[in-house]
Amino acid sequence: MVTIATLGEFALIERFFAPTAATLPTGVVLGVGDDAAVLSIPRTQQLVVTTDTLVEGVHFLPDADPLLLGQKALRVNLSDMAAMAAQPHWYLLSLALPKETPLTWLEGVVNGLRQAAVRPGGEVALIGGNTTAAPLGARSITITMLGLLGKDRAVTRGGAQVGDRIWLSGTIGDAALGLAAARGELTDLDEADRLYLTGRQQLPDPPLELARALQDSAYSRAAIDVSDGLLADLGHICRASKVGARLDLHKIPLSEAARRQVAGQGDALWPALLAGGEDYELLFTAAPSVQSQIEQLATQFGVRLSEIGEVVAGSGVEVSRDGVTLPMAQQGWDHLR
Ligand SMILES: [Mg+2]
Q1: Could you tell me the distance, in angstroms and rounded to a whole number, from the CA of residue 67 to the centre of ligand 1?
Q2: What is the 53 CA–ligand 1 centroid distance (Å)?
Q3: Does one domain contain both 144 and 232?
Q4: Which domain range does residue 172 map to?
């Protein structure tokens, strides 16, 4: 088997990371191949930076498809860019890999990254990185992504106002169910639903272009991407904005597959759906007066958007159904616990 050690670090960089295009990507003065990259930032813009790591055994199983892993590694960073409403332009890749890692695995990851980097607004360009040996055997992929945003135009967690409506893209809880399905914890699951749910866990689809359009129109006042669970992430908005939130359980969007699980398992499943991680959907608040404009944008970008509740005075997140407040024990997934 050809491993990454067979090739060696410099040949690896030459093979996978050397620029393929004749011209440098937008804004890149110096890209891959020198000690550091040099970027040119337009005067009217600010630089937005985020980073995320996927670790074998923590975020993915040893037999995970490397093509999907590469796509996911990039997309979870796109999700943070969407949360800020920034336009992603460049990324850095850091790999820690055991010497016996098959070359085909790395090839898969790199292809996945390239596929996910192609966006309607232009390709997110690789501008550098680092490869190191991981003696303890667990592979890890770290992406640092850089984007641009008009001066002081970031949509932060702190802008929610009492009376705002709370909006959520896509559906919630699929990734948590997908993980449970992959671990064999869901009985009574047909093959189509299993594929759908595990697919949602493996390949998040953050609505970046919609997030940009919402910011462009100044509709979104506060935003976050749902990575640690809806309740926890809405809680972050509440704390940063010094407000409370009231959710209506009837309005929480579920996929057909998740709906079938709730029908089978009953209400006991709800806390897991509302607190499950890795949805990578967009959660934002907006004034009630722009509801129809927001719905029009959602249609235009082909994104399912649901109004799920409202921002209230006070603190914390309250979930109710038919006027009755529900006890919610789990507030989301704390990675360090
Ligand atoms: Mg985030």
Answers
A1: 23
A2: 13
A3: no
A4: 165-326
Q: Which residues place a Cβ less than 5 A from the ion ligand 1?
A: 80, 225
66 token code pair: 């490397």
* Residue 213 CA to its chain's centroid (Å): 18
Average pLDDT over residues 124-153: 92
Closest among 50, 52, 210, 26 to 120, alpha carbons compared: 210
Residues 300 and 274 in one domain: yes
Confidence bin at 329 (pLDDT 50/70/90): low
155 located within any domain: no
For residue 179, the CA-to-ligand 1 centroid distance in Å is 20
Residue 114 phi, psi dihedral angles, 5° rounding: -65, -40
277 and 231 share a domain? yes
- Between the CA of 84 and the centroid of ligand 1 the distance, in Å, is 9
Structural domain includes residue 160: no
**How far does the centroid of ligand 1 lie from the alpha carbon of residue 241, in Å?**
16
C-beta separation of 68 from 202 below 8 A? yes
Residue 20: pLDDT band with limits 50, 70, 90: low
Q: What is the pLDDT of residues 248-273, one digit of tens each?
A: 999 999 999 999 999 988 888 998 99
Shared domain for 65 and 88, answered yes or no, is yes
Q: Is residue 333 part of a domain?
A: no
3-state secondary structure of 99: coil
Q: How far is the CA of 158 from the centre of ligand 1 (A)?
A: 14
